[in-house]
Design a protein that fits this description.
The protein is mainly beta and 550 residues long. It has six helices and 37 strands.
Length: 550
Amino acid sequence: MTVRNRGGSPLARALLAGSLLAAAVLLPQAQTGAADTGRMPLGPDDAVTQYGVTRTLAPGVTYQTFTQGAATDRWTVWARTKSGTETFGSKAAADAFAAQLADEGFSGVVDSFTAPASADGDGGLFGYGVRVGSFPTDRKDSADRLAGWLATAGFDGSRVIYTALDGEPTTGPWKAHVLRVSPSAAVTFKAVHGAYVSSSETVRSMATAEGALAAVNGTEFDISTFPGFPGYEGVPQGLYVQDNVLLSAANNGRTALLLEGAGARARIAEVTSSVQVTAPNGDVRVLDGINRAPGRVLGCGGVGGDQLMMNGVLTQTDRPWRNQLCTDDSEIVVFRPEWGATTPPPIKEGTKSVDVVMNGNWVVREVRSPAGGALPTGSRVLQGIGEGADWLTEHAKVGAAFTPGASIKDAAGASVTSPTLSAVAGGGPALVRDGKIFLNTKANGMTNFSYGPNSTMVQRHPRSMAGVTASGELLLVTFDGRDPAVSVGVSWPEAAEVMKWLGATDAVGLGNGGDATMVVDGSLVNSPKDDWGSRTAERKVSTAVVVVPR
């Protein structure tokens, strides 16, 4: 068995070590055809970027594609143990699994995985995997057959991947879709959702409903198939604001895209949110969330009392942890009409719970227990579990009013709200800050539980990103991925380099994988894919960022 270093490209390592010269990269010009100078900072130095024809969607709003490279990586099968493990914490464990595979007739190669440092997190080795087979780009069928044989032998879940996934140097290919909006364009930037916050919808449907010129996917979100603790499909993970109404609380400290806010049409910042109610008797209670099931805090970073299973130990945490599920047995959450027609029942059977149903002025109309029932049009419902249910029972009086309060602040503690504010939490780290590469993986909960590196930094996937240029232009960018014939996707360090190349002085990752979607003039222009080699299929998502004519 051999060990190969899967540690990311020299470009990725250099940019995060601070040794990459900004002057070495030329910004693309908004011209047509493929004769432009400058190349995307991806792959070999002699690669040529093909510039697509620039489409003007409205004065000051353009769409253009950039393509580069050709496929030279290989298909392989990432083997999974009979108990479901595919990434190992030690080489000895990976070697033992490779030996087990050999005993059953499969030849496995042990790969080591490393990641570069980020602005606030360490780099280094983060695991090992065992790969079986190696097939050229046009022979995915052979890898599929091998995966089937592994499944028959009991190694179910072993998956076919293209080695460009790992973050090693690659020749691509890549395809980027770039929407560029002038600050003077007669458009409005909005964050929107489908019929309800507790449901999901395609970006195309949301764009059509808004009459948008263009749109991309917004926040990451909860899923109904979450392992061991299913949620409500489409509930935003983290901050979501529409028309200055806070519809989902922040995973505090994560990076977000702020639109039509105070002082800037587009801005990227780390944010926190806070919601409280004052009871009729004057007692104040900080609420735990908005429009989500009490007790279930996807992405963590909540108010207090949140617990997360970390390395086998249930640990209290107030930090954000992307895609991790924190729990809290004592919470109060407010549901607004945007949630849906009914409030959810308690997620754990036997939980003490109560709903306080109020009208639009927060005057109490009904107190019901257990929680779960109609959310009348225009109403609000405070739902409590555990001690939160006790507090509501003590303080809610029919005919009396609660007084709500909310704030959204940046890292300096300044309010970011305005009458027209829309906002979505990033699904990735910040990418560019003040014109320099800046990936804050720790602040966004994208490390392992010891704040060390993981696969988040180096693996290539489809991505959506947002950026702001020095002149105030909004950039919305989507990379195709998971398709050797079109695009292998980008790692977050590569995405940061491309956003800087496009002229962004600040940028953030929005979404990943099959979520990554761009719609232009009502048509899907990219090729969303759920997995390597899968067919193009637009996925229903939580929210969208839309560009709407005034």
